[in-house]
Write a structure and sequence with these properties.
This protein is α+β, with helices and mostly antiparallel strands and 469 residues long. The chain folds into two domains: 7-205, Beta-Lactamase (2-Layer Sandwich); 225-464, Jelly Rolls (Sandwich). It is 38% helix and 21% strand. The chain contains 15 helices and 21 strands. Strands 7-6-5-10-9-8 form a six-stranded antiparallel beta sheet, sandwiched between helices. The protein has a four-stranded antiparallel beta sheet with strand order 11-18-13-16. A hairpin with a 4-residue loop joins strand 5 and strand 6. Helix 3 packs antiparallel against helix 6 (185-205), helix 8 (232-240) crosses helix 11 and helix 10 crosses helix 11. The termini are far apart.
Length: 469
C-alpha cells in the first residue's frame, strides 16, 4: 500500500552539477522503497497491443544516429519513450560511484530542465532499481519535483541499464503526470528494449568511458588462454596468423567494450557517413541493399568474430546497411583504433587482411551461386557454408549449428521466395540430410549435403588456418 504524503522521509538534498545546493523548497523527497514499489500491479493491469509500426519507426530513428551522432541517439531514445509510453517525462540516471550519487544525465519532457540533478544515497526508487537490478513500478516518485514539473508525478517506471558484464550503469525511467494514465507491461517491455540501446549510445559518445565505478587507469593484466580461446574474434584471427600474448590482450581489451544490441536494429544505414568498424561478438547480423520499396537483397551474413567492413572508414558514405538479425553483442572500433592495430600489431594486421580476402571470396561465391545453382542447391550450399564458418569460431559441432534466421532472411540471402525456401528445407529434410530443432540446424548427412550443394569450401580458405595453440 502507498503511504500518505506525511510518511515520506526527505532526502538530504538533491545537488546540481558543481555541487551547488538546491534551495530547500526544491529538495527532492525520497519515498521509502517498501512504501512505493507497486510492481505487482503490472500483472493485474490490462496490457495494450504492441505498436509494431511505432516501435519500428522509433528504432529506425535511434539506429540512424548511433554512429554519426550518439548523443542525438540518446535523445531519440527518450523521445521514443515519451511517444510509445504516452508519458510526460523520461530520463536516464547514471551512477557516480565515487560520489555515491545518481545523476540525471539526460531528461526529456516536462522535467527536461532538471537535467543534472544529483541524488544522494538515500533509499529512493532509482537506488532501489539499481540495488535489485529489476524493473519496478513506483507510485509518486520524485515527489519533491512536482512544483518544478508544474504537475504531479504520479507513477514512475524504472529499469536498470546494464553493460555487457551485467553491471548496472544507471536507470532508464518514465514518469506519468496525468492522473488518468497508468503504465502497463507493454511499457515495461519498451523501457527494457531501449535500455540496451542506451548503452550503445553512451559508448559511442564516450559518456560511458570510463564506466561508473571504473578506476581511472586499468591495471595491467594478461588474458587467460581459456578466455582468449572463447573469444570468437581472437579465435578467428589466431586461426589465420599466430597471435602473440600482447596481440591477444589488446584484442580482448577492445572486445570488452562490446554492448548488447537487440535484434532487427540497423547498426548503420546506406547513405550514412561511416563512423567506425563494427565487430560481432555474439548473435548474427547481415549486410543488405534495398531493392525497391518492399524488397532487399542480403549480401553477407555476419557471424561472431566477423568484422563489418574493415576499410569502410575510407568511404564518405555507406553503400549498404548492416542490421542485426538476432540479439547481439557488438563492439565498435573507431578508425584511429583500427589504424593503431594495423601499425602496432603486424600479426593482427595480417590476420585482418586475410579475413577481408575471405569476405571478398565469399561474396564471389554467392554471386556464382545466384547465377548457376537452383533453389535446392542454393539453400544446401548456404547451410554448408554456415556450418563451416560457425565451426571456425567454435560455435558449431560437426553435425549442427544455430540457425536463428527467419525463412524470409534465408530467402533474401538466396534471392528466392519464402515459398521456395520452405520447399527446399522440406526437401532436404525429406532426403534425411538436415533437420530443424529448437533453433538449430542438425546436419544428419554432412557428405550427402555437401555433394548435393557442390560445396568444396575452398573460397573460405580453411586450409590456410593453423591449429590453435
Amino acid at each position: 500500500m502507498v503511504s500518505p504524503d506525511k510518511d515520506r522521509s526527505p532526502q538530504s538534498g538533491a545537488v546540481r552539477p558543481g555541487n551547488i545546493e538546491v534551495s530547500a523548497s526544491n529538495n527532492v523527497q525520497a519515498l521509502r522503497p517498501g512504501d512505493v514499489v507497486i510492481s505487482a500491479d503490472l500483472a493485474h493491469r490490462p496490457v495494450r497491443a504492441m505498436d509494431l509500426a511505432g516501435t519500428a519507426a522509433a528504432l529506425g530513428a535511434v539506429a540512424a544516429h548511433l554512429v554519426p551522432d550518439p548523443a542525438a541517439a540518446g535523445q531519440a531514445i527518450l523521445d521514443a519513450i515519451l511517444r510509445l509510453c504516452g508519458c510526460g517525462s523520461a530520463g536516464l540516471s547514471l551512477r557516480d560511484v565515487e560520489a555515491d550519487t545518481l545523476v540525471w544525465s539526460r531528461v526529456a519532457g516536462r522535467l527536461a530542465d532538471q537535467a543534472g540533478l544529483r541524488f544522494p544515497p538515500d533509499g529512493d526508487a532509482q537506488r532501489h532499481c539499481v540495488e535489485t537490478g529489476e524493473t519496478i513500478l513506483v507510485s509518486r516518485p520524485f515527489a519533491g519535483l512536482a512544483d518544478e514539473a508544474g504537475a504531479p508525478l504520479l507513477e514512475g517506471l524504472f529499469t536498470p541499464v546494464r553493460d555487457t558484464a551485467g553491471r548496472v550503469l544507471g536507470v532508464l525511467w518514465a514518469i506519468h503526470h496525468d492522473v488518468t494514465a497508468r503504465f502497463d507491461a507493454e511499457d515495461a517491455r519498451i523501457l527494457q528494449q531501449f535500455a540496451g540501446l542506451f548503452v550503445l549510445a553512451l559508448k559511442g559518445s564516450g559518456n560511458a568511458a570510463p564506466e561508473p565505478g571504473a578506476k581511472p587507469a586499468r591495471a595491467a593484466h594478461r588474458t587467460p588462454p581459456a578466455l582468449a580461446d572463447a573469444n570468437p574474434f581472437i579465435r578467428k584471427l589466431h586461426g589465420f596468423v599466430p597471435l602473440t600474448s600482447a596481440d591477444r590482450e589488446r584484442l580482448q581489451r577492445l572486445t570488452d567494450e562490446a554492448v548488447a544490441v537487440p535484434a532487427r536494429i540497423d547498426l548503420i544505414r546506406e547513405g550514412d557517413r561511416p563512423g567506425g568498424v563494427f565487430l560481432m561478438l555474439e548473435g548474427m547480423a547481415c549486410r543488405y541493399r534495398r531493392v525497391g520499396p518492399d524488397r532487399r537483397q542480403i549480401t553477407a551474413y555476419l557471424l561472431p568474430g566477423d568484422v563489418c567492413d574493415l576499410d569502410v572508414a575510407l568511404l564518405s558514405r555507406m553503400d549498404h546497411t548492416i542490421m542485426t538479425l538476432t540479439d547481439s553483442r557488438v563492439a565498435r572500433l573507431d578508425r584511429t583504433t583500427v589504424l593503431d592495430l594495423i601499425r602496432s600489431h603486424p600479426n593482427i594486421a595480417a590476420a585482418l587482411r586475410k579475413t577481408t580476402l575471405v569476405d571478398e571470396a565469399t561474396l564471389r561465391e554467392w554471386l556464382v551461386g545466384l547465377g548457376s545453382r537452383g533453389p535446392l542447391q542454393r539453400v544446401a550450399h548456404l547451410f554448408c557454408e554456415l556450418q563451416a564458418r560457425f565451426e571456425v569460431v567454435g560455435l558449431a559441432g560437426p553435425r549442427g549449428f544455430p540457425l536463428p534466421q527467419s525463412q524470409s532472411d534465408l530467402a533474401d540471402a538466396t534471392a528466392l521466395s519464402g515459398v521456395h525456401v520452405t520447399r527446399a528445407i522440406q526437401d532436404l529434410t525429406g532426403r534425411g540430410l538436415v533437420a530443424l530443432a529448437d533453433g538449430m540446424l542438425l546436419i544428419r548427412d554432412p557428405g550427402g549435403l555437401r555433394a548435393l550443394a557442390g560445396f568444396g569450401g575452398d573460397y573460405l580458405h580453411l586450409e590456410d588456418r593453423h591449429p590453435r595453440g
